[in-house]
Amino acid sequence: MGYIILLLLNLIAPLAGAGVILFFLFSSRRNLLKNLRTELGQRFAFGKGGRVPGGCIWLHAASVGEVRSCVGVTRLLKVYYSRPALITCTTAAGRAVAQKEPVFDIVALAPADFYPFIKKFIKIYKPFRLFIIESDLWPNMITACANNGVPVGIINGRLSRRSAGRYKLLWPLFKLVLSKISLICTQTEDIARLYAELGALRRKIRVCGNMKYDILNEDPPRQSETAARLAALGWAGAPIIACGSTHEEEERVIIAAAKKLPAAKFIIAPRHLERAGQTAQMLKESGIGYAVLSKIKERGVFNKPPQILLADAMGWLGAFYKAAAIVFVGGSISRRGGHNFLEAAVLGRPVLLGRYYYNAPEAAQKLLAEGGGFLVDADNFAEVVDKLLKQPAALQNAASAAGLAAQSFKGATDKTLSAIKEYERNAKT
Asked: Which residue ranges does the chain devote to CATH 3.40.50.2000?
């Protein structure tokens, strides 16, 4: 039955691909298609594309966060296997970040999950192993690799109960896919249980932790540039609330809170930068004073300091978190599961988060339990911020608790490598 579903998916894949393109053409994210013509070659596995003699370690990452989380383990895998590394990314943003990392020998967009394209891709690059980062599980990618003698592993594996529920709707297909996977390294024991419930053999599963936490940066780049930009805004001495990876619903909550807290300054960094224009329009319609990061001159002059800074460029978020008194991490008021809570916590910043934190439950729960995190929603966002700002001692205690919580999550990269070595030893016996 699983193979029948897979066949049907391949039959409808061309129509689905066309539908996705049409969706983006008429959405606020249509800028993602601006390089469509040049990207189609990689999506369709056209050309020779940089063949690696003797095969390579193939890593597949969905986007930016997954790319960054696998840099350390890729470095270790290249030494262990004595082979070069190829990384494919589902998004162009992920590819752009990967291209800046010297550890990756070849960087490409992932071929569309259509069996003929994947098979051609395998023929071109002759991968030695495939490691999928987190949760970007493409049925044809996994099946084609297994069918062509390429063992497949999941590392830094992530799976929410909601996603598991959706997989159960196509359980014969997912059972087939799981049967093709040789090793599953999960972030948590709860995730391991979900994989087991879906049919993965427990002997294939190892709980290793979250590798993203091993790359938490306590000294983020662009701090001096950030200080200059904030000084240009006239924000010297003002309490700053940095809001990262935000979605539309959350931005409306932030704007409403800002109106109630005129002495505080807010930074909004949308999760998807292509939405920055939409966010700017929202700010304009609200009547609140705002500035756009890319338009600020280091010696900018404002008749009145704006209350909100819209971050419309990548690479600044860590420095903004460092400059803030309090951080809100998005995707948690809107139902996206939450983004990287510990990226702010490791900098010693109290973390505000909504109740939808199912993408990183252990990190969220530890922050909340130890006093480094605070639950917020549309009704209490301004109240929680105001209370923290008015109690410096409580704010400092929360900052210290957040930092300690973040440090406790490190070590997953080494555990993952150990699990891979164990798999290789067992595969030889």
From this structure: 223-407
CATH code 3.40.50.11720 region(s) in the chain: 28-216+410-428
For residue 63, the number of C-alpha atoms closer than 13 Å in the C-beta half-sphere is 6
Task: Give CA–CA dist 381/117, Å, rounded.
Answer: 48
AA letter at 318: G
Per-residue pLDDT of the chain (429 residues; tens, 9 = 90+): 877 877 777 777 666 655 555 554 555 544 555 555 566 656 666 655 555 556 899 999 999 989 999 999 999 999 999 999 999 999 988 999 999 999 999 999 999 899 999 999 999 999 999 999 999 999 999 999 999 999 999 999 999 888 899 888 888 889 999 999 999 999 999 999 999 999 999 999 999 999 989 989 899 999 999 999 999 999 989 999 999 999 999 999 999 999 999 999 999 999 999 999 999 999 999 999 999 999 987 555 677 899 999 999 989 999 999 999 999 999 999 999 999 999 999 999 999 999 999 888 899 999 999 999 999 999 999 999 999 999 999 999 999 999 999 999 999 999 999 999 999 999 987
List all residues 6 or more positions away from 331 whose beta carbon is below 8 Å from its beta carbon.
Answer: 245, 246, 247, 250, 271, 337, 338, 339, 356, 359
Q: What is the DSSP string of 192-258?
A: HHHHHHTT--GGGEEE---GGGGG--SS-S-HHHHHHHHHHTT-TT--EEEEEEE-HHHHHHHHHHH
Q: Which CATH architecture has domain 223-407?
A: 3-Layer(aba) Sandwich (3.40)
C-alpha to C-alpha distance for 141 and 112, rounded to whole angstroms: 9
- Which pair of tokens denotes residue 277? 């224009």
Specify the CATH number of the domain 28-216+410-428: 3.40.50.11720
Handedness of CA 21, 23, 25, 31 (dihedral sign): negative
Q: Amino acid letter at 46?
A: F
Question: What radius of gyration, in Å, describes the C-alpha atoms of the chain?
Answer: 23
Q: Do the beta carbons of residue 2 and residue 198 sit within 8 Å? A: no
CA distance 398 to 326: 10
- In 3-state terms, what secondary structure has residue 307? coil
- In this structure, is the dihedral angle defined by the CA atoms of residues 318, 266, 400 and 223, taken in order, positive or negative? positive
